[in-house]
From TrEMBL:
GO BP terms in the entry: fatty acid beta-oxidation
CDD domains per UniProt: crotonase-like
Keywords, in A-Z order: Isomerase
Family statement drawn from the similarity comment of this UniProt entry: Belongs to the enoyl-CoA hydratase/isomerase family.
Entry-linked PROSITE patterns: ENOYL_COA_HYDRATASE
Protein name: Enoyl-CoA hydratase/isomerase family protein
């Protein structure tokens, strides 16, 4: 279900269950967490196989759950693993992203969509809601107003509206190109920038860490910095 392709500076993680629009079962979540946890590349591209990014949780598995709270916790752990990974994780949303698929994308550092992308949180229609960290990350990313309307309506938005909401940052023909270009940047810079922008501490602590990170990068790259003046 989870296929990884190691390209050196870029790891491509593909959700591969196209016959079910890459819907995730508990074992698939475990495999995805392991793939992200084991990533050595500075950039990871998370994408789906076939005509969908990810339909979210497999509803047959959800209906059979004996411990639904643990399943929610499992999804939260996977999303936290994505968010806290030292790698920059890019969600390449091509086709449908629903429910848990949206929530996994929200945990990624960068979300880009193709013109075919559609996103929705349809759980409200069947008596569920996004519990893989969606109620925390969605308002943080798109604002409370958009988050409430998007989740309470259960409607599906296309790529253009997702861009207007801030749910994705770009619409591209191929998300792979975005991830590959990002992997060409200085790897230590990528890691430190992610750490700083993801830091949830107070401003004083964040500013101190920002200055320390800048100094570390400067000392490591001073020769390249000097030579770049001529370019």
């Amino acid at each position: 279900m989870i296929r990884t392709t190691d390209e050196g500076d870029l790891l491509v993680v593909t959700l591969e269950r196209p016959e079910r629009r890459n819907a995730l079962r508990p074992g698939d979540l475990d495999a995805l967490e392991t793939a992200i946890d084991d990533a050595d590349a500075p950039v990871v591209l998370l994408r789906g196989s076939g005509p969908a990014f990810c339909a979210g949780a497999d509803l047959d598995s959800v209906a059979a759950l004996s411990d639904p709270e643990e399943f929610a916790r499992q999804g939260q752990r996977v999303a936290d693993t994505i968010e806290n990974s030292p790698a920059v994780v890019v969600a390449g949303i091509d086709g449908a992203a629903r429910g848990g698929g949206v929530e996994l994308a929200l945990a990624c550092d960068v979300r880009v969509a193709t013109p075919r992308a559609t996103l929705g949180e349809p759980g409200v229609r069947i008596g569920l809601f996004g519990a893989w960290g969606g109620t925390v990350r969605l308002p943080r990313i798109v604002g409370e107003g958009h988050a409430l309307e998007f989740s309470l309506s259960g409607r599906v938005v296309d790529a253009d509206e997702a861009l207007q909401m801030g749910l994705v940052s770009r619409i591209v023909d191929d998300p792979y190109d975005v991830a590959a270009a990002m992997a060409e940047n200085d790897h230590q810079s990528l890691r430190i920038i992610k750490e700083r922008l993801r830091d949830r501490r107070g401003d004083d602590e964040r500013l101190r860490a920002e200055a320390e990170g800048f100094a570390a990068l400067h000392d490591a790259n001073v020769d390249d910095i000097a030579s770049s003046r001529e370019e």
